[in-house]
What does this fold into?
Amino acid sequence: MRAAFVILAHERFDRVGQLARCLTGQGAEVVVHVDRQGGSAALDAARREIGAAATVISTQRTVWGRMGLVDATLDAVRVLLRGEGAFSHVCLLSGSCLPVRPLGELDALLAGNAQTDFIESVPVATADWVQDGLSEERFTLWHVFAWREQRWLFDTNVALQRRIGVRRKLPGGLAPHLGLQWWCLSRATLERICALPDLDGYRRFFRNTWIPDESFFQSLVRVHGAGPVDNRSLTLQRFDPLGRPYVFHDDHLDLLSTAEDMFARKIDPDADGLYSRFLNPPRAMRPRHPVSPAPFLAARDSLGAEGAGTVMPGRWPRGSSAFRIVTAKPYMVLIGTEIARLRALRARLLDTDAAIRFHGVLFGDTDAEFADDADAYAGNISKARAFRDHRPAQFLRQVLWSDRAGKTVFLLRPRDDHQVEAQLCRDPNARLVLVGDKPAADILRDLRRPAPRGGRRRKLRLRPRRIPGPTELNAWVRTLEPGDDAAVLTAARDVLRSDWSDPTGWSLPGQGAMS
Amino acid sequence: MKLRLRTRLSLRLERRGLQLRALAKSWELKPVTKRYGGLGPGPVLFSTMRNEAVRLPYFLDYYRRLGIVHFFVVDNGSDDGTPELLGAASDVSVWRTEARYKASRFGVDWLNRLLALHGSGRWVLVADPDEFLVYPYCDTRRLPALIRWLESNKRQSFGTMLLDLYGQGTLAETTYRTGEDPVAAAPWFDANNYWVERNERYHNLWIQGGPRVRLSPGEALGKAPALNKIPLVRWRRSYIYRNSTHDLLPRRLNRVYDHRGGARTSGILLHTKFLDVLTEKIDEEVVRAQHYAGGREYRTLAATGEDTRLWTPQSTRYEGWEQLCDLGLMARGGWF
It folds into this structure.
């Protein structure tokens, strides 16, 4: 085996033990560093689980983002270098890594690149490598507080130094480089780094940078590396928008077993399927290719886009209320004062576009009239007026959500209770088409008339009651000018066929002639 | 500011009052089997039940598979073999009470007491024997993985919605035999007839609707049963369930939703109440009148009895968690 391994671990030593045994079983030398924060109990547990498979040391407190991680790595590397193993490279892994390709492939790779250092190392000036947080200021400012435990101190410290204009210089001609913590460096490089006369000087500098485990070896290898640098990590690790590594579970088996990377991190400790698959790799491996970013992007997008247009236990956009709702997509409302005329228009427009769900009068004095004339609409929305009038705005949200794959059009004659009217006026997704038999401005004024106040009123009123103004108008409005039926029909057809998602050409009244 | 202080004080008083109430009710609970000694890490489940011998075996198995390490059960006067089943399981601790369900606020006071004693410092799940938790990826990831994800987001509670399931036929035709998957017996649900509000005092979402509301359209809709549930919580001694598992105090635990336009990881409690075994209970429960709103729901059911039919052509058949995400009933919330 050409590779030796350093494993940084702080928990789940049962999994660490499995990983170590898997590596040593194939002839590799392994040193495990156990976080000293766990005390002797953790060390005992680790020794028990790992057994004789690997050397276990525990010299450093490995706090996230602090120098302890680098020092622990250096200590473990020294143990390896002092030993008698005949390895050409050292791979740095964590306790939640798994080899996702057979180690034979790693061996072959290293045999062909005996001098190469495999380490992601990106110049900080050009890097858009950082997902979240500081980039160059990781090096130019003094970082003495732990970001996770002492967030306020950390932030204050950074703000203060920015104001003063602190700018630290890197020692010994180093250029700051960033990259993934997990690398595979050649023995020669590591021997040179460990033997550097000014190693303590470097360590003193990096002690007060932020996340030195992502920059110490990455910067040093550019100056003190013994061979060429292959600018990639052999470990597959991706980060979410908050800079936390994505965790792999059993359902990612396909993704991992076709990945071209040698190792993957982080593996969920309960992912029995992944552990049993990759600790005992079958002989026939599936063809491998670079991991597609699509599933990671989908997870990122699911933070925001999932279920946009509805509310659910995990989603309640600020400002929502029973009467002010979110809508799934642009929709069109044909508004008029003569209901018979609206119905006649609808009957002649039904064949315009198959993608349109053309409802009748949803909010009338009788039950709701759904497009397919059913008692219950998709999702079991009841047409009964009792349900609809209980929360009219939410009824609208439900209908639009059920129709989210198509286009929704419905008819409306302004009613007296005005709950839906207010919602329609406020909603930028609403496309209101005023079918004129009254002047459009009159219909619109009627729509925007504030709803009559219901409920209990206080008897004692110290201040005079504020007279509410018209409802704010965020909806987009068009008018069908009165004329002969054929002309109105043609105009309506044009509107229905147009692309409503883009509201250019729809006047936004409230400003201009319409109001 | 003054008003906020007043709200905070009144919420705290309410919480203390509920804690005292739970303490006062604790004498009603008689320990039967205590098997929680030396319990390892992992989520635990708390439940109140009465005469659930038919449902119990599958219920226990389902949650064991999800990674529940221990069950804390209040047996409210069962006489159908439930005590024997509970006693035979090695991972169940049982308390028995003959006291009235209603007087303990539908079992919440009892559970609050047990939670304070045995739930502190753990992730606890509170579920009835007819409630089955599903969440994104629940077919491949067990509860400890979900909990790690919640903890990495610094969440202490997990929001769900109760989704009533029903069969295609009448209640009597929705047959269920012990040990079977009740979701297979009653796989249909309403996809999109729920209305949601936010309670301004407790900050929980208040969800109503679904087939039970369709069943009794004449009743006041505002009094329809609440469907919002927060069944999974990293418990502390100072926490208290206020109103069933619909909401908790302190109220920050009720903010299980994203309000900046995104979605947080959330789940669904599949509610498999409407099976033929319910018909045997209806008559008894109408007489006992120990359920929510004077057992109104049971009275409605008694009127149509075993001929109750909830299914319509617009009902949706349950296929799995991905379908629930697509329907906007629950969310992955960035979980990869």
